[in-house]
Design goal:
Number of domains of chain A: 2
Largest interface: A-B, 53 and 53 residues
CATH architecture of the largest domain in chain A: Alpha-Beta Barrel
Radius of gyration of chain A: 23 Å
Distance between the termini of chain A: 44 Å
Structural class of chain A: alpha/beta
Oligomer: homotetramer
Largest sheet of chain A: 8 strands, parallel, barrel
CATH topology of the largest domain in chain A: TIM Barrel
CATH class of the largest domain in chain A: Alpha Beta
Helix content of chain A: 25-40%
Shape of chain A: elongated
Chain lengths: 339, 339, 339, 339
């Protein structure tokens, strides 16, 4: 932490700050500038957030954090990208681009099985599908719940594809973990710390979506919640942030991919379906995500988007998805990756 | 819903859309424009979100929602502002401006009792204090939990002030409701629908904070979750949204107050402490919130902000709070309200 | 400037940074932290932006600016708020709240004279009105140009009110200055540096609006452009920033008022008409701005908003404006100001 | 335009709206909904913005625009992408990906010639370099002005590369057009309508950057200003929007590329240097832009970024640029384009 003193701060102001820094267990170091003093506080990293309280002291202009408040998630902690096994044959974080595809919501046995077969045929390695749905409106379809989980398990049996599905409540997390291969934390729950701690205690890979107003640093702090509970298998998913632009549902922040690549050893994927909200833009943004260095993609596919109970406008039909996968292979090649 | 057809859409495109609207139970009405057709879908309001799926049909340019997707929260449903009783003597939503004050976190018996006495003496009508703390970092202080709740109850006994404290998990919601007079849903849980449903089933007023990336309409949809479970006592709290500006912790969106006033019958308060993140700005923004029409305020007060375990930089010392309350009375008068 | 080295930076990396700092004329000062070094660069403030180029050096994590890059605009430079004379009887920056009111655009002699008389009668001290209009669409009304300026002068003659109007081009700035008492720089031109320099050379007070994506610091840098050309009469105007919220046209950032109050000696006003884009919200936000500490307001008033060529939806009718002014006086009193 | 009436609007309210629509030259068409009426206004597109003024009428809830307010820029106007010639051998908008590279600012003859040779050798087809620099701070280097233009012309002579450079003022636009092959309008001037009109009257291709808070629709409206003055050669450049995220200088909105592709016939490029502000992220985001469908790129290259007078941290060294170009070719291939 760097404590910046005001230009007009007195010697006494400064001495009280130095005293307080020592009291908190850090060693102060003063730089006398031409117009003001600047104080570095040296010592153990993780507790340093407490130094923010100095901002209310007399003569203090502001506090500048130097160190990142996450540790287990950082690339300084672990140089090589973490490889996470999703099934006997599928792992993410290596050379292979992993595509997770399927409907927004599980709606019926026919729908999910048809979809699972179609995405597998096109080359997807993971099946997605929501059984518990967090919906903005209480009047919208809330998911098939446990019955949906059973249908996902059936689809896995049929196709061999591991399954990713969302967890929305600590109370039902274990139930979901009985059926799912990967537990998804949605954007709206990305700072639901009770839920993060819960999935941190389960033995399943977690796919953590970035919140709509979440900085990249906060994203890693949320991952840190899961890691610090003992679960090292966290996949980060960029799915669009909220900005002033309304031509797309969200603004897919693809630069988060190289930024995260530098900051963390965790694998990173992108979700162009939620990121754009419009099926026309899904394929180009999927290509772009792979070009930017993503380890995988999450794509919504629905056999009949016009009749989907949720997110129809951003879902690809199976035929469009298959054609996207064909082109995607070329971009994976260009990126020296496999698909 | 209005379905806007593309300029080049064919008659067949249009007919298929008309068909699909009827299939979903709505009555279509076509307006033939100079360059394109526009179709209104007439019928029951709440299910209309399903019409969004038409956006993936051929020839459809986009879907424009006309009706607001909330109902119980709307002022059309109930003209007069809802008055919510917080204790035998305190109610919010009427003429009186209600000030909820206290520390960010309950830290010790001494701290919370001292604080409760101080804020009461200055004129606050409700005591705030966090026992379960949702913190961005897993390494930050997470609250005193049940012990904190007991100390809040003690402070209420001592002062007679009703108590507001945060609920962060459906599992502990009932525990919190045993101690608290008002259940707070924090910004990060504002779309934690499992939690919203849970507090909707409890018999306690709920103070719902706006999420950092939450539109005003989504804010009312979250309130609708609580209302539709049977709990009609919801207080809305504007606490700042996330924008590009970094001079303040968040951007306190005071225009949300008159906007909400027009849209909903629920009382609305503002939290200038979280909204600005800096104690220098708390008093002017508190005055501004009352001038804009707020029914109340939530203010962080701490006897020793430099030693606060959380949010020290935005906490007022009791003396500053008392002086703020004196000036606030003048603004309440100007607004034809009481304090 | 603080240069933060990477955790793994070598001694050679550090020495090269130290060398480069000296080469640029600054004196380096190293703090050896537990995991990395941090280097302060001491010396003259204003040139320090050049130190940002060190960010591309090997071993450098990032550069943290300590000092604010504006000087003439800062309160450290000048303690008391600048009082700017707008006419023989009107000055802004003192006790009096200054209200600038009038139509978005000058549309006809009748309209501007009627409006000028009405706003004067209600207590406004300055007449606003656009003659050169910066419009998003080339197909929208672009203003009456010089003829509009003449009508504004006529309205001033009639009422004695000084006139504020927008300058949109360095080429026509002098023409506008012949007629106007205050030169307005609109939000879209807030970083049109050629225009800022030009009005910095003229002898007229300048009303500088904040850009839609402009940080408060950048706002002061734009003011600094005008000040550094020799014109010390700059009035800052908060008029809303662009955020994700669409219920209002912009998000009026009232916290900018106390923030600017601390950072600069320049007077600060608010424009709730553009800030909200909806006449229903203008009065409450005007009250809030004064409560937050604004030195003045800019309000759009139109005799017939339904027929206005621009910004009708956010314009008050003269009767509503008069009633707003009556209530505003109470808030000015509460703020210990005059109106 | 769709005029949505309030649920409680009276028949008289509605009749007055109908009257006013006719008065403005449009034909009203009423849809009677279950809870409210909705009125379509049929007639000529471009003047419809005037209908916004109806929002202040009694009984009107809000106005929903149906038609896009740009026309010349729209793909409905012209189906095939516009091909713009930049020199005898270079054109943008066809199969070839066009890379514009060079320093942020022209600093000296040696620097610009060295840079021009290097970027040409690596395969860039256009040289960029700033002579007039719009800088946030008046104390930063403002460019070499005409001398810089002469050096750019010299570099063109030496290499044969056409030159793109920024215009910041209508007064000097013609001077720049004497030297430059492409006139750049920077993000801060993207709604400087006087400048847009001026370059619309010149006979040079214009590279228009998106403003930091500019919606895609407004971006096309700014292009429309240039087109409607008679200059049909406009290249759109996505260069990052301002969001809450601070890990990158801006948020490069790559989804704008497919969105613009659908809306307009104008070629679209991306500037990952300004978009990210950090040379580490330039190459991945350049690849991503091409994968998303960009027609070209603008990249900052500097022989000695640590000594650059501006934007050093985001500039590539020539060797890194050359290596980026090698990989870029693979992505161009994958996108069925040439480089």
């Amino acid at each position: 932490m760097i404590i910046v003193m005001k230009a007009g701060a007195t010697r006494q102001d400064r001495d009280e700050v130095l005293e307080r820094i020592k009291e908190l267990g850090y060693q102060p170091h003063v730089i006398h500038g031409t117009t003001r003093d600047v104080i570095g506080a040296i010592g153990d990293e993780r507790g340093k957030l407490i130094l923010h309280s100095l901002e209310s002291m007399h003569g203090v202009e502001n506090i500048v954090p130097i160190l990142k408040p996450y540790k287990l998630a950082s690339r300084e902690m672990k140089r090589e990208t973490t490889l996470i096994r999703l099934s006997d044959t599928v792992a993410i974080g290596g050379d292979e681009i992993i595509v997770m595809a399927g409907p927004c919501s599980v709606e019926s046995e026919e729908q999910i099985l048809e979809c699972a077969l179609a995405v597998k045929a096109a080359g997807a390695q993971v099946l997605r599908g929501g059984a518990f749905k967090p919906r903005t409106s209480p009047y919208s379809f809330q998911g098939m719940e446990e019955e949906g989980l059973k249908l996902l398990a059936k689809a896995r049996e049929l196709t061999g594809l591991p399954v990713v599905t969302e967890v929305i409540n600590p109370e039902t997390a274990e139930l979901v973990a009985e059926y799912a291969d990967i537990l998804q934390i949605g954007a709206r729950n990305s700072q639901n710390f009770a839920l993060l701690k819960k999935v941190g205690q389960l033995k399943r890979p977690v796919l953590l979506k970035r919140g709509m107003a979440m900085s990249i640093q906060e994203f890693l702090m949320s991952a840190e919640y899961i890691l610090s509970e003992g679960n090292q298998q966290v996949i980060l998913c960029e799915r669009g942030i909220r900005t002033f632009e309304t031509a797309t549902r969200n603004t897919l922040d693809l630069s988060a991919i190289p930024v995260l690549r530098g900051m963390t050893h965790l694998p990173v994927i992108a979700d162009p379906s939620h990121g754009t909200g419009n099926y026309h833009y899904v394929a180009p943004m999927a290509y772009a995500a792979v070009a930017a260095g993503a380890d995988g993609l999450m794509i919504e596919v629905h056999p009949d988007p016009e009749r989907a109970t949720s997110d129809g406008p951003q879902s690809l039909k199976p035929s469009k998805f298959a054609s996207m996968m064909t082109t995607l292979r070329k971009f994976a090649d260009a990126a020296d990756r496999r698909l």
